[in-house]
Every structure is written in structure tokens, then in C-alpha cells.
Amino acid sequence: MQSSLISHHEDFIELCDHIRKAGVVAFDTEFVSESTYRPELGLLQFATDERSVAVDPLAIGDLSLWWDIMSDDQTTVVVHGGQAEIRFCLQLIGKPPQKLYDIQLAEGFRGRSYPLSYAAVVQRVLNQHVDSSQTRTDWLRRPLSNDQLKYALEDVDHVLNIWRRQTDWLVKHGRMEWVSSEIQRMIDDIVADDSMAPWHRLSGTHKLSRRELAVLQKLATWREEEAAFRNRPVRRILRDDLVIDLAKRKPQTVQQALATRDLNRPEYKRRLDDVVNVITDAMAIPDKELPGKVRSRRQESSSDEQVISKLLSLSLSNRCAELDISQTLVANNKDLAELVRHHRFGEQDEGAPRILEGWRQEVCGQLLLDVMDGKVGFRVAPASASTPLEFRYEDNQSAD
Ligand SMILES: [Zn+2]
What is the rounded average pLDDT of the residues 329-350? Predict the structure, then answer.
């Protein structure tokens, strides 16, 4: 019998060969992200119809054979909540996956709860129980126990069965394209996020002046480089709120910087010379070379806008109940507010609202426009009905 843990390079090559031939593979990783700049892989798990096996990345080292498969357009890679796996692929070989399928995302198109844990998806789709007692394990320790390995392999063992059930159902219900485009969007979002300048992820930047923004950009860039160089998480170099605080206060001596009490902590204090140098550099930038102010997405909404958004939210909840699809996946309150501003108050500067595009338009776009235009109303449905509300179109049109 083959061992379920691969730690020799030739076995790894053989596995990759096997995966290519199989054409579809379930994939999961275990990793540790607490103390390094980027998460560290502790284990990779694979399952095909014939085999279920884990790969020890600490023993194998170069895994590019696998990442090449993950990012090619031949092999379907099936994951559960695969954001981390997409990031690994992207960061390790610079290419995103091309044929990815996510059973967690897909399940949100077949029921109203999203996101469901792996155990919950297994329970719902296959009516089987999986054990999740090893979730707090340290995946970088060696040797891994048999229990750890068994648990890790459970994460891929049921995935292909679920994938088959789901895809049969999705095709039959005409939702396969919805799922595919949403998976692509998840990948595109991660790719976009990965290529953004480090300061983009900080919140509240639209409140900063151009000079403050210059300080913030330089500090964030310095922090990123420092974190990469020391292989520490970015937040351990300098917390987000402290970056913002420093950008506002712009201290140019260590003494001034120490006015913020948290900066007295030893892990920050020893970097304050660097911090002050970065700030001094940013202060020397000529006015005309300062970055432009960050445009704020309008946060505050008028009372009218809020009332209409609530009405749309009810309509959307009911539509999601009709279709048995997760509302979380379709739209959040920000999306609804965006639609209200666009349609009702004629604000066009943000482009077409997301909710009027692709599968979302199909699910609810027209309905919500009709609600705003007074073409459709609703009332509480009789207790025997399958949805809480009943849409009523003018001119006796039916809701479907
Ligand atoms: Zn796992």
C-alpha cells in the first residue's frame, strides 16, 4: 500500500503525473500564518477518485510541478473555500488557477446559508459526518501524527463526491454559469488585491490630506519591505492604526513619535528611528509632487435612501427565498445603497451597479428596478406559501 504522506521527490513527481491523468483533483492546504510575512505551508492534501494523499512541503521544497498543474487550463482543481489556495498559487508561481471549482461557493447557490464550513457542506450534500478536532494543530511540527494526517485527508476525501452532486444539480437548474462567474470573480478579486500598493488596504485614507497621504504611502511601503525582509507579519512591524496615527501626527523626532503610548512598546520602539526617517522623507516631497486625495465612496446616506434600501433588502430576501440562494452572495447593503443612488437619485459616477451585472441582474436586478419604479409590490404571503412574501406585479403580470 502506498503511504498517505509523500516526502520524496520522485513520489511527488509520480503524484503530479497521476493528477494530470485524472484530470480532476480535490485540493486543500494546511498552513500557519501567525509569525511569518506570508503564510507558511505545512501540508498539501490531494484526492482523486483513486488516491487520497498528503504532500509534505517541508520535505519536498520545490512544489512548482503542482502549481503548474493548478494554474493550467487542463486540470479541474476542486477546493472548499479556496482563497488561501488561490493566494499560494498566485504568490508562488505568479499565475492564478484557471480551472478552479469551489464547493463552498457553489453551495451558496443551492441554499440560503453561506459560507458553510466543510463539515456542514459534507453533512448537507452527502449526509455524512466529518471530525474537526484537529483544527488547532501546528502543521509545521514534525512528525505529524496519524490522527493529524487522517484529519487533513478528510478535508479532501469527500470533495469530489460533493463536486459531482453539485454540478449535476447546478447544470439541471441552469446555475452552473452563475457559479463559474462567481468563482472567476473571487479569483479576480484576489489577483487585484495582490497587485495593489500596500497602503490601499488601510481604511480611512480618504480623510487624509495630500501630505498625510504621502506620509502614509511611504510608511506603508517601508512597513511592507521591512516585513518581507524580516519575514514577519506586516502588523507586527507596525499596526494599521499606528500607521494612520503617524500619518496624521507626522512626528519628525523619536521624542515626538513617542507621544503615542503604544509606540513605546519595545517591538515598535526599536524601529522608531527608521519610522522618523521615512516621515522626514515624505515631508520633504515638494507640494506639487504630492499624491492626489483619495476619493471617498460616499458613506453617509440620506434617510430616503435608507428607507428605499430597506425595502429593496426585503424584496431581495424574498427573491433569495424563492430561488433558495444565499443573499450574502447576491448583494450586501452597500450594493443595495449603490443601486438606489444610481437608479433613484441618478448618481452615475460609480458606473453600473454590480447588482445590475451578470447573474445578479438575472437573479434580482430587474425585480429591484421594478420595485423602485412601483411596477411591483408585495404583501405577506399566506402561511402555507413557500416564501414569506408574495410579489404582485401591476397589470396582473405574474411574478415569474
Ligand atoms: Zn484543511
Answer: 86
